[in-house]
Design goal:
- The complex is a heterodimer of chains A (about 400) and B (about 450).
- Chain A folds into 3 domains: about 1-100 and about 250-290, no CATH class; about 105-235, Cytochrome Bc1 Complex, Chain D, domain 2; about 315-395, Orthogonal Bundle (Cytochrome Bc1 Complex, Chain D, domain 2).
- Chain A is mainly alpha-helical and about 400 residues long.
- In chain A, about 35% of the residues lie in helices and about 5% in strands.
- Chain A has helices at about 5-20, 25-30, 90-95, 115-125, 125-130, 150, 170-175, 180-190, 200-215, 230-235, 255-260, 315-320, 325-330, 335, 350-355, 360-370, 385-395, and strands at about 50-55, 55, 60, 110-115, 215-220, 220, 230, 245, 270, 290.
- Chain A is globular.
- By secondary structure, chain B is of the alpha+beta class.
- Chain B folds into 3 domains: about 20-50, no CATH class; about 80-290, Sulfite Oxidase, Chain A, domain 2; about 305-395 and about 430-445, Immunoglobulin-like, CATH 2.60.40.650.
- Chain B has helices spanning about 1-25, 45-50, 145, 175-180, 195-200, 225-230, 400-405, and strands at about 85, 90-95, 115, 130-135, 140, 155-160, 185-195, 210-215, 220-225, 235-240, 240-245, 255, 270-275, 290, 295, 305-310, 325-335, 340-345, 355, 355-360, 370-375, 380-390, 395, 435, 445-450.
- In chain B, strands 5-4-13-8-9 form a 5-stranded mixed sheet. In chain B, strands 6, 7, 10, 11 and 12 form a 5-stranded antiparallel sheet that branches. In chain B, strands 19-18-22-24-25 form a 5-stranded antiparallel sheet, with no helix packed on it.
- The relative contact order of chain B is 0.12.
- Classes of the chains: A mainly alpha (about 400), B alpha+beta (about 450).
- Chains A and B meet through helix 1, helix 3, helix 8, strand 8 and helix 11 of A and strand 1, strand 4, strand 5, helix 5 and strand 8 of B.
């Protein structure tokens, strides 16, 4: 059963919202020119709340054996009865999966890491995508743009009057409100080609390196090459843009702040008609400034066509017969092998140290991946045989 | 009715005599020509005047393609991608829906836009587990079969990436409807209201937020306010009458009707209830809308009221139209905040509007079709702009209104940073869209601005 307190909390929210509605902005949001479907009760995002009423929610019928009437303002969610499916998880199961870390750093495990160890890890496992010192590349996000506090100033850059001006720089140091996001994301989602393989200490090291390349201070201490990060220090991290976000979602008033924020369309670039207001139908705006696509984005795959014809069979039919090694190399290998992270195809000097170990070793490392950053088969879905052909292609000097 | 019939028969009589005359001039003998007509005139349609091969031989047995596939001729009706919206090797990327070919309000499962942050995961449904823990009276684990025991509901809702149109804050970028507006699709989803499951568990009074976490390579997580969870939030396993596609989070995804697609976490594994929100990567580093003040909107939930003309479009132009043709201008409207109540259409880029006609099913947080019948004048130039409204009272802003602020005079554009969204916010762009129809019937994507 739902706890009555839960309902009470929601009721308080609704009442608070209603109070807002009846004060200053009441005229803006009480009604619209379009009666019939208008519903005075708003949901938290500023939209309409469709309760379950008389076996119906909005246009949909519901089974009244499963649902009774709902009305959030009256503490009723409309669910009729418990079903009691599933089972209670074991303590170990919860421990295995409940590993999130929130904005208050609740859930952050103990551990120790160092900037220099983070740098070594970064260079072997991250740099091929995120670039030197987190500068970004290959379509993957930049992690630093310089000293965090200075870069943060770019957040007010807006190219609305000057399209060629410098835009804002939204990287970890300048933009992210809390550091727990970085720790949590590295542990669960990085490295991209083999996520969830780093130890907690390694995650601390990489996070320390992130603080370092963003030129940050922790508790007054400049993060330099010898900086050591542990849980105690992590809790002291103050991100420069901690207060850069609206609405304020934290604490006991979090939901109320969100609800309040979305009652005012001006806050988020929206327009809500006033009561009885008819939208402009004639002589509404100047229309002589027609802005066109200028170059724009045209790299569409497959190319746009609305023809109704039989597909040209060449690729699909012949792919397996005569495997296109060059295309496979370009699709799966160039991200590292053409960006200086690893030797490029045909780069005899670059490959020399690897050739010394023999072709068999190169095949093996390629097929299985290495802890120096080579993902198994380059992250491709090639067969072993196809992959070896790509290696042969790269080594044909 | 009788009038029409008479007109038609007049036409066909006239055609008959014309063809009979012509037939005597050019006679073509061919084995496949329909007997007894032995002679073809140049204006006779070959498609009518011969037996097509599919009419003279066996088709496929029913044993072929037991799970059907579209006609081979439809291969151009497909999702598309661009390298400019991809991280490296397309594992953190998007493939967008061909809405210019979309019919009605349902997107076929194979064409539903696909967005992921660590590649499309392929989950063994036998190993699917959903854990619900945190501030509930009873924590539980459900298998897929157990989840499906709850009373199910089916709801038709669009899912839209909040970056739909987000590359075009400064100017139009795509001369394509598919890329300008195709970061969305609409389907009939089947699953269970989360509130139904919570009736089993009991939720503690201090629970205000729910974390939804995916089991994929990126372990996608998002924080959801309890209000939405107890309203219409669903766990869905059905998509247009079959299992979710892998690209949509098979076997189970979260569905928050009307809200950012990114919040509808795919490949779901865990829901946790807490008194504080989380700061997951995709709700801080991305999916936040930076405003000219330097502050960014976080937790920007609902996709606001929006619309577009679908036909014509850059893909479906009007080059084939003749003077005087009566043609249907058709479009889509949608709102994550409620139900579409009205759509207006402008032929001059938003200076003057007429009421368009809403048609078909009109459902909350769902694609809605609208249309307007137009008599085409050869050589005319049009600026087609649609403008939708919803039952929450919202109306689409003009490009200038959204960027510089509603009610701000042109002379003050950009002077007050507290007004308008500026052009750096990436997400939640819902200003009106304009197609320019040129005198030769080409259709171009343009924006009407005053600065």
């Amino acid at each position: 059963m739902f706890k009555s307190e839960q309902y009470k909390m929601i009721a308080v929210s609704i009442i608070a919202a209603a109070t807002l509605l009846t004060s200053g902005q009441a005229k803006d949001i009480e009604s619209s020119a379009y009666n019939g479907l208008w519903n005075a009760q708003k949901d938290i995002s500023g939209g309409v709340y469709y309760p379950i009423k008389n076996g119906q929610t909005g246009p949909y019928k519901v089974n009244t054996q499963a649902f009774k009437d709902s009305d959030v303002s009256k503490n009723i969610t409309g669910v009729k009865a418990a079903s009691n499916h599933g089972r209670v998880p074991t303590a170990n199961e919860i421990k295995a999966w409940d590993k999130d870390i929130n904005g208050l750093n609740e859930g952050l495990p103990e551990g120790t890491g160092y900037v220099d160890e983070g740098e070594a890890l970064y260079e072997s496992q991250c740099m091929m995508c995120h670039g030197d010192f987190g500068s970004g590349g290959a379509g993957y996000p930049a992690l630093s743009a310089g000293k965090a506090k200075e870069i943060k100033r770019t957040l007010t850059n807006n190219r609305w009057l000057n399209p060629t001006a410098e835009g804002p720089s939204r990287v970890f140091g300048s933009y992210w409100p809390v550091a727990s996001t970085m720790w949590w994301y590295i542990r669960d989602a990085m490295p991209h080609t083999k996520s969830k393989t780093l130890t907690d200490d390694e995650v601390y090291s990489l996070t320390a390196y992130m603080l370092y390349i963003n030129g940050m201070k922790v508790d007054g201490e400049i993060v330099n090459e010898t900086f050591k990060l542990n849980k105690e220090k992590f809790l002291q991290i103050q991100m420069p843009n901690r207060n850069g976000f609206v609405p304020d979602i934290d604490g006991v008033n979090g939901l109320e702040n969100v609800r309040k924020f979305y009652t005012n369309p001006d806050n988020y670039g929206a327009i809500r008609l006033k009561k009885g207001e008819e939208p402009c139908m004639s002589n509404c705006q100047q229309t002589d400034n027609i802005v066109r696509v200028d170059g724009g984005i045209t790299d569409f795959n497959p190319p746009i066509s609305v023809e109704r014809n039989l597909p040209v069979k060449k690729e699909s039919a012949s792919y397996k017969v005569s495997f296109d090694v060059k295309a496979a190399y370009e699709a799966s290998c160039t991200m590292c092998h053409a960006t200086g992270v690893a030797p490029a195809a045909k780069d005899k000097a670059g490959w020399a140290p690897f050739m010394e170990k023999g072709l068999a070793k190169i095949y093996k490392n390629g097929l299985e991946g290495t802890n120096m950053g080579m993902p198994a088969k380059g992250g491709s879905s090639l067969s072993d045989e196809e992959f070896k052909q790509v290696v042969d292609y790269m080594l044909k000097f | 009715m009788a009038q029409n019939k008479e007109t038609n028969s007049t036409i066909s009589r006239r055609d008959f005599f014309k063809k009979a005359t012509a037939a005597s001039v050019s006679a073509i003998a061919a084995a496949s020509v329909i007997d007894p007509v032995k002679a073809l005139a140049s204006e006779d349609d070959h498609a009518i005047m011969h037996h097509p091969k599919w009419g003279q031989s066996w088709g496929d047995p029913v044993t072929k393609n037991l799970y059907g596939i579209p006609s081979a001729y439809e291969h151009n009706n497909t999702r598309r991608y661009t390298g400019l919206l991809a991280s490296g090797n397309f594992r953190a990327s998007i493939a967008v829906t061909p809405i210019h070919e979309s019919e009605g309000i349902i997107t076929p499962n194979g064409l539903f836009f696909s967005r992921c942050h660590g590649g499309t995961a392929h989950i063994d449904p036998n190993e699917f587990r959903l854990m619900i823990n945190g501030l509930v009276d009873k924590e539980i684990v459900l298998t897929l079969d157990q989840l499906k025991k709850y009373p199910r509901v089916t709801r038709t809702h669009f899912i839209e990436c909040p970056a739909n149109g987000g590359q075009e804050w400064r100017r139009p970028q795509y001369n394509s409807l598919q890329f300008a507006k195709g970061f969305m699709a609409c389907a009939a989803w089947t699953g269970v209201y989360i509130k139904t499951i919570l009736e089993d568990l009991g939720i503690k009074p201090e629970a205000k937020w729910m974390l939804a976490e995916g089991s994929d390579n990126s372990e996608m997580g998002r924080s959801v306010p309890i209000d939405k969870v107890l309203d219409d939030a669903m766990l869905v396993w059905g998509q247009n009458g079959e299992a979710l596609r892998p690209e949509q989070g098979y076997p189970v995804r979260l569905l928050l009707p009307g809200w950012e697609g990114n919040l509808c976490v795919k490949w779901l594994k865990r829901l946790e209830f807490s008194n504080e929100p989380w700061y997951a990567k995709e709700e801080t580093s991305k999916y936040t809308a930076l405003q000219p003040t330097g502050k960014a909107i976080q937790h920007f939930y609902a996709n606001e009221v929006n619309s577009t003309v679908v036909s014509p479009s850059p893909e479906k132009d009007w080059k084939h139209l003749e003077d005087g043709d009566v043609i249907e201008i058709e479009g889509l409207a949608w709102s994550g905040m409620g139900t579409i109540t009205r759509v207006d259409l402008s032929f001059d880029g938003g200076n003057n509007y007429v009421n368009a006609h809403i048609k078909g099913e009109v459902l909350p947080k769902c694609w809605t079709r609208w249309s307007y019948m137009h008599t085409y004048k050869k050589g005319e130039t049009l600026l087609l702009t649609s403008r939708a409204m919803d039952d929450a009272g919202f109306i689409q802003p003009t490009v200038d209104q959204e960027v510089f602020g509603n009610g701000v005079a042109k002379a003050n554009y950009g002077k007050d940073k507290t007004k308008g969204m500026g052009v750096e916010s990436v997400y939640h762009r819902n200003a009106v869209e304009t197609w320019e129809v040129t005198p030769n019937g080409e259709v171009n994507h343009v924006q009407i601005r005053t600065v």
